[in-house]
Amino acid sequence: MPLDRRKFLGRSAATGAAVALAGTATVAASPAAGRRPGRRYEFSVLGTTDLHGNVFNWDYFTDAEFDDKDHNDIGLAKISTLVKQVRADRGARDTLLIDAGDTIQGTQLSYYYAKVDPITGPGGPVHPMARAMNAIGYDAAALGNHEFNYGIPVLRKFAEQCDFPLLGANALDARTARPAFAPYWMTRLRTPFGRPVRVAVLGLTNPGIALWDKAHVQGKLTFPGLVEQAAKYVPRLRSMGADVVIVSAHSGTSGTSSYGDLLPHVENAAAHVAQRVPGIDAILVGHAHAEIPEYRVVNEETGREVVLSEPLKWGQRLTVFDFGLVWERGRWQVESVTSKVLNSNTAAEDPEIVRLLTGEHEKVVSYVNQVIGTSARRMAADEAPYKDTPIIDLINHVQAQTVRAALAGTEHAKLPVLSQASCFSRTAVVPVGEVTIREVAGLYPFENTLEARLLTGAQLREYLEHSARYYVRTPAGGGVDPAKLTNANGTPDYNYDAVSGVTYEIDIAKEPGRRIAKLCFEGRPVTDDARFVLAVNNYRASGGGNFPHVATAKQVWSTSEEIRNTIIAWVRAKGTIDPEEFATQDWKLTRDGAPVFYSPLEHRPYAQCPCCG
Predict the structure, then answer these.
(1) Total count of domains within the chain
(2) Which end of the chain is more exposed for a tag (fewer CB within 10 A), N or C?
(3) Which intervals hold domain 5'-Nucleotidase C-terminal (predicted)?
(4) Residues 334, 406: one domain?
């Protein structure tokens, strides 16, 4: 069924430009050095990215004000205050506000209005992110990959509720190959000289959506590369009279991809766009959760610098691009572009946003604090990146049980079921005593779903070797600092998998690719031709992290139910979480065969596994 494009093209692509007239201008006091005097105009473009459902400076998983080691603050309420300050300083009519995507997923607030009280329901509520961004006065936003996590109907409804367009020049209708969302937005800024400045914002999203949210988009949308689509649209925008072209790209600057060669397009391609596509003045960068106040890339065709900036995630920073233009040879020329970021922890929450959304916030706080069971022991994730801990075992236990039950009575019922899980949050805790929704949800903050894939013993070993690259090579004989042991080559925690159902050692004294030792199943070495079912999340199964084999392995089962909800339902049904029922020592770090850390679970499987000594 073709996608309805009318809503998204009405303000921009269908007409060529949506006109939002602006007023007074700020004129430079003196011309730039080496240039003849001319009429000058200055304006600013403010940018956010990766807001991930954060309206307030609040952590729904800890039920407390957000804080981190750097004392950052988060949320649109603080961004609103910063925006108002900049508008007051530079002129509201000479200031635009855009976003680079990943808006409606990430907190229990955004989850609640997608799943518990969905915006798609009859007479459903307006999404809190739409209400906040409308009130602040956003002009345009690019689509992020997480916009698709809840399915296209939720995204479409969110788009309808926004007073600004969601842009995606490389999000195409699979049937017609035409834009499924507005590719760009254009506006005119009035100057004191009677000649407006035409500003275009081109939106680009991440090709990885085709893999990560395959269940939602396959057969409906396609996602060509950022460079290819920018090369198509930037000349068109210039021919339409754009004096300034800004790209809002949900794509990092590193030039890397987490999905390897599963797609022909680069995941983090923002710098490539700047380098290879002429005619761009600035790029608001997203997706990588990095802080880049200003990064200059020289375009290989024109030799001109393109200014890139990425504000830190969750509303922790606000990017400010400042543009200086001069009227020369009958047109506006971009004379200068600079960028910087403002820190949200310097601002108070905007009372207007607080008043607007306190009701929604309190409703979600009440929801996440519902008690769903009790725990016999406190379980914490602080050591999970380098020790086999019960809190990760809980995830693997629930996933493996779920897959075993689903495969009962099928041809694969007798195969051993393994499970993978990552430490998504080192601060996650399941307390002793009463356990709430927020505490269980804190183990799994992503909207991943569960699949079952077939792997051989040889493929499993390669999978584990890939995962073990996460550790910094550490020779035997000296001390080990846990703070310096993980995240080798920038590998995030969510791309290290602990696998349950087999036992194995990871020798961190050895080079990557030769670290897995004593890989056993039920006390016997795993043979290359052994067959296993792996319970795996859809991100990993679709190529996330570029793990070998799993993305091409045969799928024997899948579900649209989120893993987080599966764990919550398991706790509700059991009533009590007792690590004695599921916690086992499946893996450990070694150096030349000697354990790196002691684990209280050490005795459990290894005592009955002769090959593990």
Answers:
(1) 2
(2) N
(3) 371-551
(4) no
Residues 265 and 400 in one domain: no
**What is the pLDDT, as a whole number, of residue 599?**
64
Closest CA relative to residue 61, chosen from 444, 442, 562: 442
Q: Are 348 and 485 members of one domain?
A: no
Residue 1 covered by a domain = no
DSSP, collapsed to helix, strand or coil, labels residue 521 as: strand
The total of other beta-carbon atoms located within 10 Å of residue 413's CB is 12
Q: What is the pTM of this model?
A: 0.84
Q: What is the distance between the alpha carbons of residues 166 and 181, in angstroms, rounded to a whole number?
A: 7
By residue count, the chain amounts to 613
In a domain, 199, yes or no: yes
Task: Name the token pair of 587.
Answer: 């893996």
Write the CATH number for 430. Answer: 3.90.780.10
Full domain range(s) for residue 334: 6-24+42-364
DSSP characters for 156-177?
Answer: HHHHHH-SS-EE-TT-EETTT-
d(CA 465, CA 110): 36
Helix segments in 14-172, DSSP class H: 76-90, 108-111, 128-136, 152-161
pLDDT for the residue numbered 601: 54
Domain contains 542: yes
* 37 lies in some domain: no
pLDDT recorded at residue 258:
84
Tell me the pLDDT tens digit for each residue of 69-120: 999 999 999 999 999 999 999 999 999 999 999 999 999 999 999 999 999 9
SS3 category, 476: coil
